[in-house]
Design brief:
mainly beta, 5-stranded antiparallel β-sheet, 378 residues, single chain
């Protein structure tokens, strides 16, 4: 018995260094020892030279992840990636509405790759200075579009202007007021300067009455027509409703000007020539006057309301009709007949218009002298 105990003690003494190396008694030195401690009951094994592996009783080991091999291309690249299958049909995606954009306005054109630079300037005459403001430039393609019109490529306003355009042929239209010129320009890759000589001048119009008296501007208007008429004698209207003393820019040449004072028959026609590079001022003289008519019971009396008026020439042609207690109008110099209608009776009076003399014309409502008409007005 003593011999057996001595052998066991010797065996334990020889095992102690190994247990200490594996983690000491109870396996708590490293937590992963194989000694007879609590660590032995956790089922950890510590392979030599690596981290311990957790072994769970009853757990199955999953198969290794297998990926398809990547095919190498002859040039050393990587083969095509596998296609991704998307669900069909694709889900609807709601996007917010897009608001409308304002139409672009071209000021200084943006530079475009490969475009040529075109600089445009204009003069009234060949020896004049460049026009610094008031010019309008329009660049068109020379071939009509589907609508039959020339496509507008670019516009600019002011004086000298620069455009960046693709090489090609263009029609350039320059306007300065009512004066204008058009050129066909072929543009290459290099910069090009083009100057327009408009051969234009200005026209300033005004009118007075006989004796030099002025005319209220709100009762005076001018219309400018081409100087030459067509086969029927009709002239093309260039500028309507021109205010007095306004400067109108026109190409040099002769124009037919119509001056209208009032809105009846005080009209003066004249031909005026515009010289290039000059301001032509023209003043016409109207032989007319403003007449105010009224129907009264006696001379100097109050005007009778609800009166209809007709003004006739001495030959019987109707010049003007109006309704009201007062009938005011501008008439050219000459002889007229005023006819007033009130309460189914007609009254009339002959009168004369003297140029430059505004006056009142009274028609007396004489019950004995008035002409009675039936209720139908015939």
């Amino acid at each position: 018995m003593r011999l057996i105990r001595a052998v066991l003690l010797a065996s334990l003494a020889g095992a102690l260094p190994a247990q200490a190396q594996d983690g000491g008694p109870g396996g708590l030195g490293g937590g992963f020892g194989g000694g007879p401690g609590p660590g032995r009951n956790l089922g950890f094994g510590a392979p030599s030279g690596g981290m311990p592996r957790l072994e769970i009783p009853g757990a199955t080991t999953p198969p290794p992840l297998s990926l398809p091999p990547i095919q190498s291309q002859p040039d050393g690249g990587v083969g095509a990636l596998p296609q991704i299958q998307l669900p069909s049909p694709l889900p609807q995606i709601e996007l917010p509405g897009i608001t409308g954009y304002a139409a672009p306005s071209i000021g200084v054109p943006l530079a475009m790759p490969g475009a040529g630079s075109l600089t445009l300037s204009a003069r009234l005459t060949g020896e004049g200075s460049e026009i610094e403001r008031g010019m309008v430039w329009r660049v068109f393609r020379p071939e009509p579009g589907p609508d039959g019109r020339l496509p507008l490529i670019a516009t600019a306003q002011g004086g000298t202007s620069n455009f960046q355009l693709d090489p090609g042929s263009y029609l350039v239209h320059a306007t300065f007021g009512r004066a204008g010129a058009t050129k066909r320009i072929t543009l290459g890759p290099n910069a090009r300067d083009e100057q327009f000589v408009l051969d234009a001048g200005g026209l300033k119009l005004d009118a007075v009455l006989s004796g030099g008296a002025g005319i209220p501007p709100d009762k005076l208007r001018f219309s400018i027509y081409e100087g030459a008429g067509d086969a029927a004698g009709e002239r093309a209207l260039i500028v309507p409703n021109v205010s007095p003393k306004a400067v109108v820019r026109l190409n040099s040449g002769t124009y037919h000007v119509v001056s209208t004072y009032g809105n009846v028959n005080a009209v003066i026609r004249s031909d005026i020539r515009v010289e290039a590079g000059q301001l032509t001022e023209a003043t016409v003289e109207h032989k007319a006057a403003e007449i105010t008519m009224k129907l009264v019971r006696e001379a100097g009396g109050e005007a009778i309301a609800d009166t209809s008026w007709a003004v006739l020439t001495d030959s019987g042609d109707i010049v003007r009709e109006s309704v009201g207690a007062f009938a005011s109008m501008v008439l050219a110099e000459g002889e007229y007949v005023a006819v007033a209608r009130n309460r189914e009776r007609l009254y009339q009076r002959e009168f004369r218009v003297v140029a430059g003399r505004n006056s009142d014309v009274e028609v007396i409502a004489d019950e004995n002298g008035g002409e009675r008409i039936d209720a139908s007005g015939d």
